[in-house]
Amino acid sequence: MVIYLIVFFAVTLIYFASAERLATYIRLIGLQGLLLCGIAISELKDVNTANLIFIVAETLLFKTLLIPYLLSAIIRKSGVTKVHRQALPGFYLILFSIAALLLSVVLANSLINPFINTIFMTIALYTLFTGFILIVTHRLIISHLIGFLIIENAVFIFSLAVGSEMPMLINIGILLDIFVGVLILGFFGLRLKPHTNELTMLKD
Amino acid sequence: MTGFFLILISALVFPGIIIRTKSIASGRKGPGVFQPVKDVLVLLGKGSVFSDTTGLIFRVAPVISLSAIFTAILVIPFGNMKGMISFEGDFIFFTYMLALGKFFSIISALDTGSSFEGMGANREAFFSMLAEPAFFILMATLAMFTGYTSFSDIFRGFFIAGNHYVLVYSLIGLYLLVQIAIIENSRVPVDDPKTHLELTMIHEVMILDNSGFDKALIHVAGWLRFAVYGALIFNITVPAGWNVFLQAGLFLFVMAVFAVIVGLIESFRARNKMNKNPKFILALSAIALIAFLVVLIVTDKFIL
């Protein structure tokens, strides 16, 4: 079951490379939260129940509902709907995405370790690279933020890759989630430069 | 041999079903299912007119394209029956026979000396080049999954592999083959066969100078190309061990459903902007690559 979820997660990353609307990005972020919840439930059977409930609630509340809601509010406020200021044409983004996938497989397979789940490691690295690519190739500040959220999802999958050995890492991933929620609300939500119709600058 | 004839029969009604679906979806009475066949029969009765600027390549290209597709059909299996030609790695032969047909249609367009046709040839070559990795990665995935490298063995071994991944690869294969068929046949969303502006055409602009008998051959080649991909879709969705008569019925059913899907896509979906097409096609390769890597990892065949 978990293999279906992880493959579907990887497909959402390709969609990130080809999508052009901010609303699509937000839907994908919400979907990734839901998929991570499913992956966490199927993967973390050894952790205690209270911790598992906390992780599931966090992925559902923060990743699937709260963060997409905050991002939608920012988009509504700014009126910017399309990612129309990419530094590169979309064609190259997909090429980079494919290269990132290949690189992730090579890197994950070179880390042969009985305690690391190779598939999780591959997808975690791919997620990390996708976040980097999104940040480097886009100009809108909200795309950078979404890139950061993807990197944050990568940290979560990294923590699942070694979750049975290091449950502390999962908690660090969750703390990062809460930090992102505060960041979006406080920094981007309130300090975005209004009436410029572009999400490229913050207030002084 | 059964598969060969079934492909020929289904190719005759395939474009008619697409046109019928489109007319029903748009609320028109529309032409009958056999109208494209009647049109081609009329064209076959006419002679061809050749421009003074064209040479030998332009005259032989339609025949070579059609014969290349006929040869490609020979390697496609039907159920447990092998194709008339079957050998290790025959899917590479199949792909390059289709590519040979396309190559001749491209150089024939260039042979006319028309800038419009050159533009169309450029686009067709580029999009085919981008679609090719998706097909090869898909076939490599299936070859890796089953452990065989010929069409008949791959499709026979596919359902014997017998674990729950079969469903996943069947669905991924279905999706990719439908999309590749649409791209290779220049249909919506990549191209629109009904467009009237040369600047927005891809395949249609390449055959502007063809007329009469040659144009009929080009149309028939297009139908056969659709039927060929339909046959692959049939092989990836219906287990090879089933009863032959049931399979023949299912083959025609799968073809009809495939034609209806193409018709519905053309009815309800807008065409892509030209500069979005490369991204759209490349995304298919990326999806195929994910499937391939998952097979590598799941079957422990990835060795550094």
Q: Could you explain the architecture of this structure?
A:
The complex is a heterodimer of chains A (204) and B (304). Chain A contains seven helices and no strands. Chain A is mainly alpha-helical. The longest helix of chain A has 30 residues, at 49-78. Chain B has one domain (2-28, 35-298). Chain B is built from eleven helices and no strands. In chain B, helix 1 runs parallel beside helix 10, helix 5 crosses helix 6 and helix 9 (212-237) crosses helix 10.
Summarize, please.
Chain A has 204 residues and is mainly alpha-helical. Chain A has 7 helices and no strands.
Secondary-structure map:
The complex is a heterodimer of chains A (204) and B (304).
Chain A: H1 2-18, H2 22-43, H3 49-78, H4 90-110, H5 118-137, H6 141-161, H7 167-191
Helix pairs in contact in A: 1-2, 1-4, 1-5, 2-3, 2-6, 3-7, 4-5, 5-6, 6-7
Chain B: H1 2-25, H2 35-44, H3 56-73, H4 90-111, H5 115-146, H6 151-160, H7 165-184, H8 203-206, H9 212-237, H10 244-268, H11 277-298
Helix pairs in contact in B: 1-9, 1-10, 2-9, 3-4, 3-9, 4-5, 5-6, 5-7, 5-11, 7-9, 7-11, 9-10
